[in-house]
Write a structure and sequence with these properties.
Elements (H helix, E strand, L loop, with lengths): L15 H22 L1 E6 L2 E6 L4 H6 L10 E2 L5 E3 L7 E4 L2 E3 L10 E5 L4 E2 L2 E8 L3 E4 L4 E6 L4 E8 L5 E8 L4 E6 L7 E10 L4 H12 L4 E4 L1 H6 L1 H9 L3 E4 L12 H19 L5 E2 L8 H9 L3 E2 L14 H11 L4 E6 L6 H16 L2 E3 L2 H12 L4
Parallel strand pairs: 1-7, 3-8, 10-14, 15-16, 15-20, 15-21, 16-17, 18-19
Antiparallel strand pairs: 1-2, 3-4, 5-6, 5-7, 9-12, 11-14, 12-13
Helix pairs in contact: 3-9, 6-7, 8-9
Length: 386
């Protein structure tokens, strides 16, 4: 007989490692699903809350489960610079400090505490001391006697607020000296009437009517934006022999502004005048008469001579017209400049007072001139002419 072997079937191999891995993955997925939906109870700031298992302590804030808030970033004087810019809230779990990432398992007592305010850093720096202005005299024309010099101080200040906590002068500033000059009465008793803040409907017209009747020239310090609204009145001023001068573009207090704003106010005001009259104004008066080195420098660069006044009855306060007229008549001296207003509000008192001021000063021997006339008298005096 021939020999043969019976072929036995091989046993199928069971891939136990792969099956176990799959089971583990499935269990992990189930665990994640369970964790995502499993809710447990915790106590947050004394109130019972239900949260997801594994929620971080920091998530309690984002979920609105606690009213604790971060601190603020504050200036050296305690004012808030950035709300919420300070320390983050602190957490305690079961009475012990816990990091923001602490995971909740259920049953914990959580207390969240407002974050602390953080004060800005104090830094050291050197910065310039602005040039102070020393004004001498009471005359209307302004002369620069000395330019002065910037000083230097060492300061410790808040990095963001700029609040100074300590300072030491390293080099004192040298004052700028401004002299207010009254031109000598060369050529007789001269006086210049000046009007600020116009042109203004009605009041400017009535003043121009009085000046025309009395054959008296004056100088009008006009505001650029008003010129654009009343160009006809400005053209009438020029036509009737008056001088149009610059009082800035919109009557801003220049000593409270930065240099760029000062420059823009002066030059825009001048451009508004030139657009109507065809000429760049030669005279400039800052609103309120407020001066500092920047105002003086920018007026000089604009080729405009700065002028103030010697008689100021403060007609903008609307005093009784008789009192207003009496003050101007009494205080006027040869070479003087009278400050009045044709704009900025109700100028009824100024108009009535002008009807008395002009004839009375004429009877006292005064001759009315524009500021150009005063300047010419000043030049004659400087040249020694009688």
């Amino acid at each position: 007989m021939s020999r043969y072997e019976v072929q036995r079937p091989r046993r199928a191999r069971v891939a136990l490692p792969e099956a176990a891995a799959a089971a583990l993955v499935a269990l992990a997925a189930l665990a994640l699903v369970w964790q995502a939906f499993m809710r447990v109870g915790v106590t947050v700031d004394g109130a019972r809350r239900t949260v997801t298992v594994g929620m971080a302590v920091a998530d309690l804030l984002a979920s609105g489960l606690s009213e604790a808030r971060p601190g603020d970033l504050v200036a050296l004087d305690g004012t808030v610079l950035l709300p919420g810019g300070g320390g983050r809230p602190l957490a305690e779990v079961d009475g012990a400090p816990a990091p923001p990432g602490h995971r909740l398992r259920g049953g914990e007592r959580v207390r969240l505490i407002d974050g602390a305010d953080v004060t800005e850093r104090v830094i050291s720096a050197e910065r310039p001391i602005p040039i102070p202005v020393s004004v001498t005299g009471t005359g209307p024309l302004v002369r620069l006697a000395s330019t002065g010099a910037v000083g230097v101080e060492a300061v410790r200040l808040g990095e963001l607020s700029g609040q100074v906590v300590a300072s030491e002068t390293l080099q004192p500033a040298v004052p700028m000296t401004v002299v207010r000059v009254t031109p000598p009465p060369t050529g007789g008793k001269l006086v210049a009437l000046t009007f600020d803040d116009g042109p203004w409907p009605e009041s400017t017209e009535r003043i121009l009517d009085i000046l025309a009747k009395e054959k008296v020239p004056a100088t009008f310090f006009v505001v650029g934006k008003r010129v654009a609204k009343q160009p006809g009145l400005v053209r009438r001023m020029v036509r009737e022999g008056h001088l149009v001068a610059n009082h800035t573009e919109d009557h801003r207090v220049l000593t409270l502004a930065d240099r760029n704003t000062v420059r823009r106010q002066i030059r825009q005001g001048a451009n508004s005048i030139k657009a109507v009259t065809g000429k760049w104004p030669r005279w400039f008066r800052p609103p309120g008469g407020y001066l500092d080195p920047v105002v003086l420098d920018e007026a000089r660069k604009a080729n405009e001579r700065l002028v103030l006044w010697s008689v100021d009855p403060q007609d903008w306060r609307r005093p009784r017209w008789k009192k207003l007229a009496a003050q101007v008549i009494e205080e006027t001296e040869p070479g003087g400049v009278v400050l009045l207003h044709d704009g900025g509000g109700d100028r009824t008192a100024t108009v009535k007072a002008l009807l008395r001021i002009v004839p009375r000063l004429k009877r006292k021997g005064y001759r009315f001139v524009t500021l150009d006339g005063l300047e010419a008298a000043e030049r004659r005096a400087a040249a020694g002419e009688g």
